[in-house]
Amino acid sequence: MSQNHTETLVNNVKGVCDSNPNPSFGREQVAPGRHPASARKTKTDKTSKIATWIVRSLHQKGKLENVVKEMERMKLNILGFAEVRWKGAGSMKLGSKTLIYSRGHTHERGVGILFDVTTAKSLGSWCPILDRVVVSKLIAKPLNLGIIQVYAPTSDSEDVQVEKCCEEIEKEKGYLKSQDTIIIIMGDFNAKVGDERVEDVVGPSGTGTVNEHGSGLIGWCQVKDFTITNTWYQNHPRRQWTWKSPGDRIETK
């Protein structure tokens, strides 16, 4: 992503940095809908680093601080979260960083995106959709960048949950695409896409055996012209998994 900034962003983030993980501090609760901010387009040749993490709850004491430190250690510009497990939706400041989040009425599911100070200045708008989807648009040149952070239902979830999540992703994708925006959809899809090359969708570095969600994801990417990017980079076997079950019994990518 190409971006630089010549003026300070004015957005709707209030709140202050707070080391207490209690969700009632340092956060601005918001109603569902798009939340605009002002940002200015300019260009640079800087490369941004984007990652996503299944954090297994930020409700635990000290967990959020550890996540911020890890983001800084890895020099990430944007970090998406799945399984935030907070209540409600809103935004907050973490020192120089900006966090947006979308969650439900209970301490389950939940997603969020954390931006470093430079990238936050390009945050044009964002929208909490479901406790499984949050969307942001960054103002950049030559094209804007849209990020959809997802925590998809598991394979044993009811079909209506899966369909609702897919419908919202599709709707937001259409909204972003209409605004000259490159789209990145990231997060936990609860999908296994296997280790076999599939056109320009699945690369040579996938792992495991395709499951039902994986087959659906591959088919969707073929129709919508998306690429599953983490299957295109060769890593050491111990670095290929992105999720471990409790007790480290199962590792998946």
UniProtKB/TrEMBL annotation:
Gene3D superfamilies: Endonuclease/exonuclease/phosphatase. It comes from the Eukaryota. Residues 13-43 are annotated as: Disordered. Keywords: Receptor. InterPro entries: Endo/exonu/phosph_ase_sf (IPR036691). This is Chemosensory receptor a.
